[in-house]
Amino acid sequence: MFVLLSMIISLAILGLMFFYSKQRESSSQRKYELIVDLRQLLALCRQHRSATHHALMFDEDRRNELNELQQALLNQSQHLIGIAHFDNKPMYRILQRKLESLTNEWQERSVARNQIVHGKAIRHCMFLLDEVMLAWLVESGREALSDEYHINWQQIIDAMDALTQMRICIEELDTMEGQRRFTHYVATVQRKINQLSIISALTTDSPACTQALEKLKKWQDMQQSLSSQDLYAISSALSLTIAHTYDHMLSELLETLYQPLPKLHFVETS
To answer: What is the DSSP-derived secondary structure letter of residue 200?
Structure first.
């Protein structure tokens, strides 16, 4: 009788362990899918920002490209609403409304305003990514990894904020106050980008990033004059550096927690 009871208890324990293991696997898979899709949405937002910036600054006809990007953004956001946890769906619906506004009204905005609107959507994606990552790290009990992630996350956000402010000031360079503010943010951006080398030295040492920082330094030292188009090109190179650093951080975390992230898929443009 005792042996039979022990067997029943052992089987019950094994059954519970299997059940909770399946639950954890299901939860991990859902979080992984959310991160993959949010990461793709983030890349699409960046593509849309770049295309609209070029259209506004250089009067380029990018209707076909932007139509494809608009559809891809809305499809991706709708998919995210479908797979998000019921309690979190409102945040993904808010993001979808931001994307609809972002894609429908860009022609009426200045370049600086376009930068701000896209920046808000990009940050919304990143904060949703952060929410998923933090929940995953807490569930996995990886306190040291969580602390490292938090420090790196803050450095990336600080670098993004500084670069956004620098970009906004480009349109104000015809005023003394605009020049003063731009000079301040150039110094801040240089410092913040250099700090990102702790996360991914390979990214910050890339030729594009190095060249962009060198041009800003020459501008500071009054050794080189730069047009607004030049400054936007420099800021785009630095923005890409920050994006690559963030993606490097995400990729390393996911490889440690679950499995490597897939290669990013970009919309084919003409």
So the answer is: -
